[in-house]
Design brief:
With about 130 residues, the protein is mainly alpha-helical. Helix 3 links the parallel strand 1 and strand 2.
Length: about 130
């Protein structure tokens, strides 16, 4: 079985078939490994990769998980919706945002972009930037 390399607690989490799971543990304890094996296990038992969504905090973690799952189960892993909270929900808004009144051509500004935009508006309106 695909989960044979996990310890007993990791195996329990990885082999849970129904519903979402939340794994809370310290750094280096195998959280990403456990989630990776859970997704691989789900695919191995016939769950469609199109019904799996994996949210991570960093692009690096998402990329690593995608690569690990691909190593375990092959190209089916490429169809999993996986990424950071921001990237996944941005993708969902681009696809289905029109349903709630958003255009698919929106732009997301970071702090620097926001400050530059506010600066240009202040300049364009001839306002004092100190106010």
């Amino acid at each position: 079985m695909i989960t044979d390399g996990l310890n007993e607690i990791q195996k329990q989490a990885a082999e849970q078939k129904e519903g979402p799971i939340l794994i809370v543990a310290g750094a280096g304890s195998g959280k990403t490994r456990t989630l990776t094996f859970r997704i691989a296990h789900l695919l191995e038992i016939g769950v469609s990769p199109y019904s799996v969504m994996a949210l991570t905090f960093t692009n690096k973690a998402a990329k690593e998980m995608q690569e690990r799952i691909t190593d375990l189960v092959g190209v089916a892993a490429k169809s999993i919706l996986m990424g950071t909270f921001h990237s996944i929900f941005s993708r969902i808004l681009r696809i289905d945002g029109h349903r709630i009144g958003y255009s698919s051509s929106y732009t997301i500004y970071d702090d620097d972009d926001s400050k530059k935009l506010i600066g240009s508006i202040i300049k364009e309106l001839n306002l004092d930037d100190k106010d």
